[in-house]
Amino acid sequence: MANNVNVKKLEADLWESADLLRAGSKLTSNQYCMPVLGLIFLRYAYSRFKLVEQEILKDRPVRGGRVLPVEQSDFAEKSALFLPKEAQYNYLVNLPANIPEQGLTGIEGNPLNSLGEVVNNAMELVEQQSEQLQGVLPKDYTIFSDELLGELLRIFNNDALDDVGGDVIGRIYEYFLNKFAKNVAQDDGVFFTPKSLVKMIVNVLEPAHGVLLDPACGSGGMFVQTGDFVNHAGMIANNTMTFYGQEKVEYNAKLCLMNMAVHGLTGVIKSGDEANTFYHDAHNLNGCCDYVMANPPFNVDKVKSESAQSAGRLPFGLPGVNKAKEIGNANYLWVSYFYSYLNEHGRAGFVMASSATDSQGKDKDIREKLIQTGHVDVMMSVGNNFFYTKSLPCSLWFLDKGKPEHLLDTVLFIDARNYYTVVDRTQNEWSDWQLKNLNAIVWLYRGEVDKYKVLLAEYHAELADDRPFAEIQAALEQNVQAKREEAKAAVEAAPRKERKTTQEKFDKELEALNEKLTVAKEAVWLTEKFGEGAYQDIPGLCKVASRDTILNEKGASLTPGAYVGVAPVEDDGVDFAQRMKEIHKELLELQAESNRLMETISKNLEEMGV
C-alpha cells in the first residue's frame, strides 16, 4: 500500500503533467476540469473492475476445460461496476494512433473517427451500467486533439493508481478537485469545501448509521469524508448510511456523483431548480435526518420570503423581510432548515459566515429561540484563509437534538482562529493532529475521557517514545540542532561535486526529524492544557457557558471570542531594555562590517582600473 509521502508526490507529479498539457493547449481550466476528472474516474473504475474480476475468477466454475467468462451479473452481486471491453482503461490507452482506420463503432453502430469519440463512447457504456451515473459523466472529449487526449490517458495509466484499497485514486480525485477549485473558482469555489473543515464537522458529529443530508452538497466532500469515517470505524458506509444531497448547480452535482463513485459510495443527489433548498425539500426529509452537514453559500440575498415560508422548515419563524418581500440575508434560513431536518436525536454540523453568530434583528430572535432549545452543542471560530477563493473567517456550528440531560444547559465555545498550519501565503489548514486536538476538547466536554486516552496513546505510538511529551520535544529539538550542525560540517567537508547530494541527504533526515518534532509539539499543546484528561476552560481557546449567561449576559451572542477571552501573553523571561541595547550593539557592528566590505570592494575595483 502506498505511503503518504509517495501519494503526495504522485498527486503533485500527475497534476504537473496534466496542467502542462492544458497550458500547451488552448483550453481553459473550466473546459479542462470535468474531462480530466472523468478520466480519473474511468481509471478508478478500471482498477476496481480488475480487483473484483480477480475475486470472481478465484471461485469460477470450469466447463469443458475452460473457465467461464465473467458477466455483468457477477459484478452486480459484489456492488461493483461492470466494464465492457471498450470502456476498460487498458483498451483505450493501447489503441493505435490511426483511429479512423480501426473500423470502430459506437453504441448505436456509428463510426468512431477520433480518440475523443472513442472515449465519449466509453463514458456512455459506463453510464449504461449504473443508474446513479446516467447523464453524469463528461462526453466532450472531442475538444482534445487525439495527441493530447492520448497523452492524458497515458499520464493516468500509472501502476500506483491500482492501490484501490488505500483509496489512492480517491485522494488523487480530491487533489485535482482542490487544484481546479483554485484555478476555476467556479461560483466563487462553492463546489469545494476545504478538507480541514469537512473533517472537523464529521469528526465532531461522529456519524455511524442512518440518514445523512447535505442540502448544499457541492462536490460531495461531506459524503466522502463520512464514508471514510464510518469505514475506518470498521463498518461499511453503504450498508449503514443513506446519503441524500441537493445541489442547485448541475455541474457541481455531476462532480459530486463522480466523487462518490470514485470512493465507492452510492447516494441520491438531486440538482437543478427542484434542488434549490430555499424553496424545496427535494427528498421530503424534514424531521427525518440523523445527520445534516453543509457548507451553504453565505449571505445570499433576494430570497422570496413567501416561497420560502410556504416550503416550511422554519421552526423559529422567518428572518427579516424587506418591502419587496425578499429576505435580505438567508443565513438564518439555512440555520433554521438544518435544525428542522433533524429527527429527535439528530446532529447537525455546518459552516457559516462569522457575522451570523451575533447578527441582530429577526436573526437574533431566531438565535434566541434556538439557544433556548438547549440543542446548540459546540460553536467554533475558524481563522482566515481556510477557503481557496475567500480569505474571510467563518464559524462551525454544531447542533444536537439528542444532547444528554446534563449538557442541555451549556454550550462549548472554541476559538481556533490562532490555531492552524500555514500551507502557503494564501492558505491555512488544520493538520491531522490539530484536528484531533480540537476534537479532543469536544470529547472532554462530553465526558468521553476514554477517547482522549486513546489519542494520547496514538501520540506515543507515533513518536515511538513513552516518556512525557515535553521531554520528547526537548530531546527532538536537540537532535534537530545537532543534525543541522552535522549537516553544515559534512557539506563544507565534502568535495564540491558531492555537496549538493550531501545536502539533500541531510535535508531528508532533517525533514523526518522536524515532522516528528511537530507531532511532539502538538502532543505538548494538548497535554499542557488538559493533562491526562480533565476538561477545563482555557483563556483564549475554550469556554463552557450556560444558556443564562448566553441569553442574559451576552445578548444571545454565539461568537466564541465573546466567551473565551484572550490568551495570557507568556513571559519569555527577556529583559526588554537589555535586549534593545544588545540589538543596538549588533546593528552598529553590522554597519561597521558593511563599511569595511565597501572599502575593500572599492580598493579592488581601483586596482582593476574600473
UniProtKB/TrEMBL annotation:
It catalyses: a 2'-deoxyadenosine in DNA + S-adenosyl-L-methionine = an N(6)-methyl-2'-deoxyadenosine in DNA + S-adenosyl-L-homocysteine + H(+). This is site-specific DNA-methyltransferase (adenine-specific). Belongs to the N(4)/N(6)-methyltransferase family. The keyword Aminoacyl-tRNA synthetase does not apply. Residues 473-523 form a coiled coil. The keyword Transferase applies. Keywords: Coiled coil, Methyltransferase, Restriction system, S-adenosyl-L-methionine, Transferase. Residues 10-153 form the N6 adenine-specific DNA methyltransferase N-terminal domain. Residues 166-440 form the DNA methylase adenine-specific domain. The lineage of its organism: Bacteria, Bacillati, Bacillota, Clostridia, Eubacteriales. Its EC number is 2.1.1.72.
